[in-house]
Amino acid sequence: MGFGIGDLFWIFLLLSSLQPIWQKRQIEYRRLRALQEFQQERKSRVILLIHRQESISLLGIPLSRYITIEDSEQILRAIRLTPSDIPIDLILHTPGGLVLATEQIARALIRHQSKVTVFIPHYAMSGGTMLALAADEIIMDANAVLGPVDPQLGNLPAASILKVVKDKPISDIDDQTLIMADQAVKAIQQVQRFVRTLLKDNIPKQKVLPENIEPIIEALTTGRVTHDYPITVEEATEMGLPVNVGLPHSIYELMDLYPQPQGGRPTVQYIPMPYDDRRPILPTPKGRPLEEPNQRI
């Protein structure tokens, strides 16, 4: 019995339906292999917290990803499975997320007896910055950024709600705003108290000079700038945070395995290789650079 055109069509359809499953398995295998190699190189427990903006494939509706309770459950489990004498390396790429989940992770990190290092290849804003403050060392790409951790009540900055109450006569302020102002005071105090706990962490050693702790709290929690303000390597170093510049090249390769899902034409394209040796001389970042003579960019 021979094969006809109809049989070839059904075989093609079957193979086409299996291809996405095979590709997914392949990328999962490459991710696990890259994690294992980085763990062996660092002799540490490596944890990734990566949030990309994804879209529902059918309708194309944007769906933002952020730190959730599910994330905290997974990371707390990973920390529990890590012996106290093994360092933890946390790779962060996140816009932030739920305060409860973030604080749970941060407390678990400062309780770990060995060194905790946070790697930031692109950005760690809001709750991501809170997690970075829990680390003993923050290693950033020269162009990566952190962000303020001032509390937000819904879509409103707590500091801005307090400014309204301060600037307007109380007779002109509605009860809802007054209630929010009361909550704003409590939220700022709670965040400041928690950030102070993170910065005073001295296990395995003191990471921030005592005289820098209160100025850092003032800069990050009081709403002096907008919540999406980018804190550069230079500014974080000037504050006194334990920042170093220079990510291992393997982290960039690992990030390539967590691409932004594509729906249509790509928004950025380039040939992935150095153009030539005539590169412009850029200013040297002011963070404390890591010595890595064979590091590739």
TrEMBL record:
It comes from the Bacteria. NCBIfam families: Clp_like_SDH. InterPro entries: ClpP/crotonase-like_dom_sf (IPR029045), Pept_S49_ser-pept_pro (IPR002825). It comes from Amazonocrinis nigriterrae CENA67. GO terms for cellular component: membrane. Residues 288-297 have a biased composition (Basic and acidic residues). Gene3D superfamilies: 2-enoyl-CoA Hydratase, Chain A, domain 1. Residues 278-297 are annotated as: Disordered. This is ClpP class periplasmic serine protease.
